[in-house]
């Protein structure tokens, strides 16, 4: 049994043990002694088929050169890796060639998916950055509103002071009107006109006191509403801060995913070249 016959017997085992779905052929210097296609790559050859003169891999092997070629997708529909080695006889002359080939269809799909993932993650990064910018703007706005709300509460306290002063004035005015009415009654008819004025002053004081009470009541309601709004705005501000932190964390995760996808793409290219 010569070396070519031995390789013909071993070729089916090479096909089974290889990690790829390979096409394999064993030739002498003129024809094929063994040919087995892969599921996706079939040149339509049989035992006894002549060696194609345009097959650079086999031609180089028969010339004594070990060759590995990457054929573009235009040749067989998918990128193909082909490899060939010379078969040497007992006298170390080339008596034939052993060649195999396999498509990179799965690798191409994986590379395409990787590119798609990269595109998605890049789009997500842009979206997250946009959300982060809006979150920061919202946080700044709520902080500004919160400051204004607190200032409004402080200003309303000043209004309380004014209404307290008006109430005190109305009470004093009411007291003065009462004293004036007493004096007018004491002097009789001479104080009748003054008594009318004193009565009107007392009425005005009472009305001022009632109005002041209504103002204080309304102001108290407004202050309660403002304080409630302050608490709600504070809650929004805290939520905005948490949102900004989550967006930053999410952005970091996407960046890590993008880095892993790039590394995968480099890895795929490294073993398909």
From TrEMBL:
Residue stretches making up the Methyl-accepting transducer domain? 97-273
Entry keyword Zinc:
no
The species this protein was found in: Paenibacillus puldeungensis
Any Pfam family: MCPsignal
Keyword tRNA-binding applies? no
| UniProt feature coiled coil, ranges | none
Protein's name in the database? Methyl-accepting chemotaxis protein
Gene3D superfamilies referenced in this protein's UniProt entry, alphabetically: Methyl-accepting chemotaxis protein
Q: Which InterPro entries match?
A: MCPsignal_dom
């Amino acid at each position: 049994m010569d070396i070519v016959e031995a390789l013909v017997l071993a070729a089916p085992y090479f096909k089974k043990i290889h990690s790829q779905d390979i096409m394999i052929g064993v030739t002498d210097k003129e024809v094929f002694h063994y040919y087995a296609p892969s599921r996706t790559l079939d040149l339509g050859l049989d035992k006894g088929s002549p060696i194609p003169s345009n097959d650079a891999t086999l031609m180089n092997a028969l010339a004594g050169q070990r060759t590995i070629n990457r054929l573009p997708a235009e040749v067989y529909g998918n990128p193909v890796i082909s490899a060939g080695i010379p078969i040497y006889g007992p006298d170390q002359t080339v008596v034939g060639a052993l060649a195999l080939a396999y498509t990179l269809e799965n690798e191409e799909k994986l590379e395409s998916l990787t590119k798609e993932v990269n595109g998605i993650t890049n789009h997500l990064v842009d979206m997250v950055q946009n959300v982060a910018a809006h979150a920061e703007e919202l946080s700044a706005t709520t902080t500004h509103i919160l400051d204004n709300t607190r200032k409004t509460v402080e200003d309303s306290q000043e209004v309380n002071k004014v209404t307290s002063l008006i109430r005190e004035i109305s009470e004093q005015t009411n007291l003065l009107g009462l004293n004036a009415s007493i004096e007018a009654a004491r002097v009789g008819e001479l104080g009748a006109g003054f008594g009318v004025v004193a009565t009107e002053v007392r009425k005005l004081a009472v009305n001022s006191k009632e109005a002041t009470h209504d103002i204080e009541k309304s102001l108290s309601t407004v202050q309660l509403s403002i304080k409630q709004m302050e608490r709600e705005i504070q809650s929004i501000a805290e939520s905005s801060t948490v949102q900004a932190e989550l967006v930053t964390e999410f952005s970091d995760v996407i960046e890590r995913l993008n880095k892993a996808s790039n590394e995968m793409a480099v890895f795929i290219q490294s073993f398909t070249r």
